[in-house]
């Protein structure tokens, strides 16, 4: 963490350091929301699929985990 104008902020180099960790966090968030309908493996697969579809077109990578989680949740709900 760095301090800028008295605020603690993350080092921008650390934001994208571990994509797999970000995808695990996205899957955990999606599973928290829809876990009563889908098992953990199904959620993880939906997150991986959403990431594969979105990553090449993402303009702001720092929002990628949020976008992936939303897309995965939407796909799961459409298929339910």
From TrEMBL:
Residues 23-77 form the Protein-tyrosine-phosphatase-like N-terminal domain. InterPro entries: Phosphatase-like_N (IPR048716). It comes from the Bacteria. This is Protein-tyrosine-phosphatase-like N-terminal domain-containing protein.
């Amino acid at each position: 963490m760095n301090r800028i104008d008295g605020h603690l902020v993350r080092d921008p180099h650390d934001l994208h350091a571990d994509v797999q960790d970000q995808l695990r966090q996205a899957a955990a968030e999606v599973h928290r929301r829809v876990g009563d309908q889908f098992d953990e493996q199904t959620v993880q697969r939906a997150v991986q699929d959403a990431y594969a579809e979105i990553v090449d077109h993402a303009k702001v990578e720092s929002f990628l985990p949020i976008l992936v989680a939303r897309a995965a949740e939407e796909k799961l709900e459409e298929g339910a």
